[in-house]
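Contributing new records

If you add data, match the layout below exactly. Sequence lines come first and carry their own label; structure lines follow with theirs. Keep one chain per record. Anything else will be rejected by the validation script.
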Amino acid sequence: MKVPALIMAGGKGTRMGLPVEKPLLPLLGKPLIDWVAKAVSSAQNISEFYVVTSANTPETEKHCQLRGWKVLRTDAKGYHNDLKQATLMAGLMGPVLTIPADSPAIKGKFLDKIVSQFEECGKDFYAVFVPIETREDLGLSVDSTDEYNGVWYAVSGVNIVNGSKIQGEGKIETCALITKEVEVLLNINTTKDLKLAEKIFQNR
């Protein structure tokens, strides 16, 4: 099974407090989004990818266009609305993998595993969560949380969703992976997260 991917890169990134758009922040000399694009490009189970931008990230958009990547500019009305808009714009009505532009530790093999597990689970939504205490123990921020089977987890932003199902208002059946793997542990929300990520990368 192969699925298209959306790299979500349209958020304001206000928590960073820096003049540089978050997807372009350098990690060991390379923009965060370039690490993610490399992983998506190397994944065997990804058929194509788009970068989802907005008016919040014009420099990121230029950066992607210069590299020949497909870009979808949404209206920046929140993550879920942007996701709905992007899937409609690209005509992606089947399974779609989403990944944030601030997850530089992602690897193609990890994404291949996620696609395979989504296919096995047989649901319309597959989410990847990280235990909150795992991020906190490393000193990483917890930016977004969600509940799964009565337990709250940190949201990784790596998901697979049926593009046609998210256009409606009905409940979507979900299965999830709970993992401490570094590939999804390191999403960058603050300057402290970025510094910690640099240390982890240097020690890998």
